[in-house]
Specification:
The protein has 283 residues and is of the alpha/beta class. It has a single domain, classed as 3-Layer(aba) Sandwich (Protocatechuate 4,5-dioxygenase, Chain B), CATH 3.40.830.10. 38% of the residues lie in helices and 25% in strands. It contains 10 helices and 12 strands. Helix 3 crosses helix 6 and helix 8 runs antiparallel to helix 9.
């Protein structure tokens, strides 16, 4: 068996976002500077942000990441979809680090292994670690985290293929048992509807964001099942929602909504984007 290289090289730097660290950092801070700051009514437990190329969704993502600017977390749990086929329910990375143009981010492999053991011992779900995956939706969130967080942090990267509400709650239970009491942030990566006209996309995305705001895993699943709204990271947002609730979050605030048409000028076929935060209300 070939030796697993220590650091996962980025397959998307230079394509989905700038491969030049100076340009990349400047672009991210320009997005953050353009955020209209909103007073939040509590502590940010987690956030959700889109995962398209920064040209299309970077400004929307900035609304979510701005809420944790200059904060410190020891661990960031990142949940995303996995766009390629795989038989496993959950995937993580076999590498020790993720690489972006802004540097390396350490993966908490101890937590990855502990989660795999728990899942395989206590459920019929399957979790695997993959090598040099091409998944963009998890990596795209990393440069924002590198720019906004105050100090070094480790990540627990999880790519979720299941969209079953029961499994979402179960996966959240397993993660919670391992991270309870730690100084952590939850990040969910999801876009919204794909390739509808602007007017239809706005209807679908508004409904999905409304249901996300309801804080109900079953309701957002039902919204997609009935074709009333879509989230391409549905499994990731469902697990994140269940996990944030266990960590004390009780409300979700929607911060921004847009589509790719606003950037391209083509409103005949767009991708929808939204950003928001999971909040633990002030006592």
């Amino acid at each position: 068996m070939a030796r697993i290289i220590e650091t996962r090289p980025s397959p998307i730097a230079g394509y989905w976002y700038s491969g030049n660290p100076h340009v990349l950092r400047s672009e991210i801070f320009s997005y953050l500077d353009n955020v209209n700051v909103t007073d939040l009514h509590g502590e940010v437990i987690g956030l959700f942000a889109p995962h398209a190329g920064y040209r299309y969704s970077g400004q929307t993502a900035a609304y979510a990441f701005h809420t944790v600017k200059d904060k410190k977390f020891d661990l960031v749990v990142i949940l995303s979809p996995y766009h390629a086929y795989h038989s496993a329910t959950i995937l993580s990375s076999a590498h020790q680090n993720y690489q972006t143009p802004l540097g390396k981010i350490q993966i908490d492999q101890g937590l990855v292994e502990a989660l795999m053991d728990k899942i395989h011992l206590d459920s019929d779900l399957k979790m695997v670690r993959v090598v040099q995956d091409e998944e963009h939706s998890l990596e795209i969130e990393l440069p924002f985290l590198q720019c906004v967080l105050e100090s070094d942090f480790r990540i627990l990267p999880l790519m979720v293929r299941s969209i079953d509400p029961g499994y979402s709650e179960l996966i959240a239970d397993f993660i919670f048992e391992l991270i309870e009491g730690k100084n952590i942030l939850i990040v969910a990566s999801t876009d919204l509807s794909h390739f509808y006209s602007q007017s239809i996309a706005e209807q679908l995305d508004t409904e999905m964001l409304k249901q996300i705001q309801s804080f109900s895993v079953s309701q957002i699943y039902q919204t997609e099942f009935e074709g009333k709204g879509y989230a391409c990271g549905l499994g990731a947002i469902m697990v994140s929602m269940a996990l944030c609730k266990k960590l004390g979050a009780d409300t979700i605030e929607i911060l921004h909504q847009t589509t790719s048409g606003k950037e391209t000028g083509d409103f005949s076929s767009v991708v929808g984007y939204g950003a928001g935060v999971f909040i633990k209300s002030k006592a």
